[in-house]
Amino acid sequence: MSGVEIKQVVSAVDLGEGPHWVENKQCLLFVDIANGNIHRYYPQTNKDQVLHVEEGGSGSSLSFVVPIEGTEDLLIVGLGRSFAVVQWSASDPDQHTVKVKGILHTVEDAYPFNRFNDGKCDPQGRLWAGTMDGVTDHSNADFAMHKSSLYCLDTDLNLTNQVNKVSLSNGLAWSPDRKTFYYIDSLKYSVDAFDYDDVTYKICNRRTVVDYKAAGLENDIPDGMCNDETGNLWVACFSGNKIICIDPKIGKIVRTVELPAKNITSVCWGGADYSTLFVTSAKTYHSAEELATQPAAGCTFAITGLGVKGLPPTNFKADLQVLKNKIASCGM
């Protein structure tokens, strides 16, 4: 594709996910799920810092990371089945380990092997995050279908269940006009849309935007997702070596970008003008033979020259006094 440049910017991790651009620090946050690590990558210096979060709450897997608005160094993360808060200061060593400061909520006690997966804030700063069965092999017959959910944590730390009977909660995005919510349950093999109320955060009228199998992507699994300033959706294709761009107004794939890794996990816009698309990937779920032919598996990529820009991400806009009280009540 003319003018498009794909650059490997962070070396391989086991299961990269949840990229989030931090505007005031001009850096990229993302997680390495199974190892419980948060990465902080600075494009201007090429520095990659790593924060390991010790097991707490309901597990050790670390599935998303979002800065907490109005704080210098607090982050909300998905830790196992819990919403947790951690602190990562700019002065911390490049390789650092912390304990959680507090657990805000834990979900799905009836399904102890579940864990959080993708999480992202809506335009009002409420955090949406969904769960999945935490088994290693998603092809396993024991994978718990329809036993997960999508939740919304509002700014007063109230938690609501927005979608139930989910199998593998994944990509989240909101249209620029804030009237449509896009959602991926990966094992539905589709990108879906809901009507969305930006004030009440109610969603309804679920429908399919793109059916992967009908679109000829029967070997791909829809994963993480973001949108650009035009409202088009950019979707990571796990097991597909690519990302796709969908025009949701017509329900069609309008662009494909091939990548040098098979298991593409998520995407987000970043850079000084939001013209860089950052892409995470995984080297898990590969045989040794496959890894030998895919040295870039698990790397994070930066794609430029796409001719379109993204929108700034939203941080978690928690009521800071409510948050302070909740953390204090945890006694951690």
Q: How would you characterize the overall build of this protein?
A:
The protein is mainly beta and 332 residues long. The protein has one domain (5-130, 168-330): TolB, C-terminal domain (Neuraminidase). It contains two helices and 25 strands. It has helices spanning 288-293, 320-330; strands at residues 5-10, 16-22, 27-32, 37-42, 47-53, 62-67, 74-79, 82-87, 95-98, 102-106, 114-121, 127-133, 148-153, 159-166, 169-174, 180-185, 190-196, 203-211, 221-227, 233-238, 242-247, 252-258, 263-270, 276-282, 300-304. Strands 2-3-4-5-9 form a five-stranded mixed beta sheet, with no helix packed on it. The protein has a four-stranded antiparallel beta sheet with strand order 1-25-24-23, with no helix packed on it. It has a four-stranded antiparallel beta sheet with strand order 6-7-8-10. The longest helix has 11 residues, at 320-330. The mean pLDDT is 95. Keywords: Calcium, Cytoplasm, Hydrolase, Metal-binding. One of its GO terms (biological process) is L-ascorbic acid biosynthetic process. InterPro entries: SGL. It holds the Pfam family SGL. Its main location: cytoplasm.
